[in-house]
Design goal:
Keywords: Membrane, Transmembrane, Transmembrane helix. This protein is of the alpha+beta class. It folds into 2 domains: 60 residues, no CATH class; 84 residues, no CATH class. Strands 1, 2, 3, 4, 5, 6 and 7 form a 7-stranded antiparallel β-sheet that branches. Helix 1 runs antiparallel to helix 2. The longest helix has 27 residues. The radius of gyration is 24 Å and the shape is elongated.
Length: 172
């Protein structure tokens, strides 16, 4: 976040510098208000660029085996351009490389889910999936496993069969 702030300030300085150079070239014929307008436009442009490139920059740094399952795009009336081109504000990823199976329960998978947000810290939660019954259970508070490996105290929730996280875990 600090690096983006510094980049935004420098974008404003660069745009103001370009206008200053253009003003000198034209014999100081440009109005005085054009330099702060150029600086502000450069800073706004840099901020918009950072918003739209955040997802790609974050996604390319994911380790091997972590796959993106769900993207949440955002639109807002305070940013009218997002009505035409929405940007990704948060996404969920599944660590398919370390997903675990139990031979006694072949339809169940245990995987780590990661939640990424534009201005939020990364959150991780272990989640149990029942692929045959299309349901899932978060295991944030831990879990008690029975002798056969079944989770004894899982709080199961129904999940649509076409849920992207369920599909990624069960098909992977």
């Amino acid at each position: 976040m600090f690096v983006e702030l510094i980049a935004t300030v420098f974008a404003g300085i660069a745009c103001a510098g370009l206008v200053m150079a253009l003003n000198i070239i034209t014999g100081r014929r440009l109005p005085k208000w054009i330099m702060p307008i150029a600086a502000g436009a450069g800073m706004i442009g840099m901020t918009i660029s950072n918003e739209y490139t955040w997802f790609d920059r974050t996604a390319e740094r994911l380790p091997e085996g972590v796959e993106i399952a769900l993207k949440v795009e955002e639109q807002g009336w305070l940013r009218p351009w997002t009505k035409v081109w929405p940007y990704t504000k948060r996404f969920s990823a599944v660590d398919t490389g370390t997903a675990r199976r139990n031979e006694n329960l072949p339809n169940q998978r245990l995987a780590d889910i990661y939640f990424f947000g534009r201005w939020s810290p990364i959150s991780q939660a272990p989640m149990l999936f029942d692929c045959a019954a299309s349901r899932s259970a978060l295991l944030i508070d831990g879990a008690d496993f029975g002798a056969d490996g079944a989770v004894a105290d899982a709080d199961w929730h129904a999940v649509p069969a076409d849920d992207p996280i369920l599909k990624l875990v069960c098909e992977g």
